[in-house]
Write a structure and sequence with these properties.
The chain has nine helices and six strands; from the N terminus they run αβαβααβααβααβαβ. By secondary structure, it is of the alpha/beta class. The protein has a domain of 147 residues: P-loop containing nucleotide triphosphate hydrolases (Rossmann fold, 3-Layer(aba) Sandwich). It has a six-stranded parallel beta sheet, sandwiched between helices. The protein is globular. The N terminus is likely disordered.
């Protein structure tokens, strides 16, 4: 995994299915800060059978975005308010230490561990028959995004064989909330968090991850998607920013929409 910024050629990140609304889904979408964009249909989206969704609250929500964009914090807040079951991303990968020091072969070992753990956690959560909504910190396709960034060509061929087998039957979420932030903002948040391994990540790698997410979600139209730029807001530290975001999440989303928060007052 090339943490210190060896750029790879552009790859195609193949999306799948997803959606977003809130518990007030019957309200009209009147926020002028949200706009709809039509994206190109991906191959996996074409394979997925699209179901007709009415104005109802989503049962399966995913929050996605690059490192330190605020996924876990927003997931915790929404889970508390929605009384949702949580699916946590894997944070105890035993191969990450070797990966951060760029030990040969560590990228494939770390990625395969993530793949096995993520598909297992999603499958187990989706198998539970519960009236409570399900809220996950990750989209299954996240694993493929990082595999394309970090594996060499031969490793990627092997990885893809396992990914296609393990991920193909995992049900799509009803909603995806994609959190964005400028690379320099992510870098500052990583430094503030002060986790030893994360501080080894280069600025160039953060930029590559951000571009990979942008490319993936630009092509993503398998379900409803809300894109939120968090560069100018801090819903962890500022309650007014959190309330603005929660207010937006009370409105339904159709297709791909963008929420551009106002940010703090001068």
């Amino acid at each position: 995994m090339r943490l210190r910024g060896i750029s790879r050629r552009a790859r195609r990140f193949l999306p799948a299915r997803s959606l977003l609304y809130s518990s007030h889904a019957a309200q009209s979408c009147s926020n002028p800060a949200a706009r709809t964009m039509t994206a190109h249909e991906s191959s996996s989206a074409r394979r997925a059978a699209k179901t007709q969704r009415g104005p109802r609250a989503p049962k399966h929500i995913v929050i996605e975005g690059p490192l330190r964009v605020g996924k876990s914090t927003l997931a915790r807040i929404l889970a508390e308010r929605l009384h949702a079951r949580r699916v946590y991303d894997c944070e105890d990968n035993p191969f990450l230490g070797e990966f951060y020091t760029e030990k040969p072969g560590s990228a494939l070992r770390a990625q395969m561990y993530f793949l096995m753990e993520r598909q297992k956690r999603l499958r187990e959560a989706l198998a539970v028959d519960s009236p409570a909504p399900l809220l996950a910190d990750f989209l299954m396709e996240k694993d493929r995004i990082f595999a394309n960034l970090n594996l060499d060509d031969e490793e990627l061929k092997l990885y893809e064989r396992y990914y296609e087998s393990l991920a193909k039957d995992i049900a799509a979420p009803d909603l995806v909330i994609y959190l964005q932030a400028k690379p320099e903002v992510l870098r500052a948040r990583i430094a503030k968090k002060a986790i030893k391994d994360e501080n080894q990540i280069s600025t160039q790698y953060i930029e590559e991850v951000s571009r990979a997410y942008e490319h993936f979600f630009f092509r993503y139209e398998a379900s409803d998607l809300l894109v939120i730029d968090t560069s100018e807001i801090d819903f962890v530290a500022r309650n007014e920013d959190l309330q603005q975001l929660l207010k937006r999440l009370q409105e339904p989303v159709k297709g791909t929409q963008y929420f551009l928060p106002l940010g703090p007052a001068e």
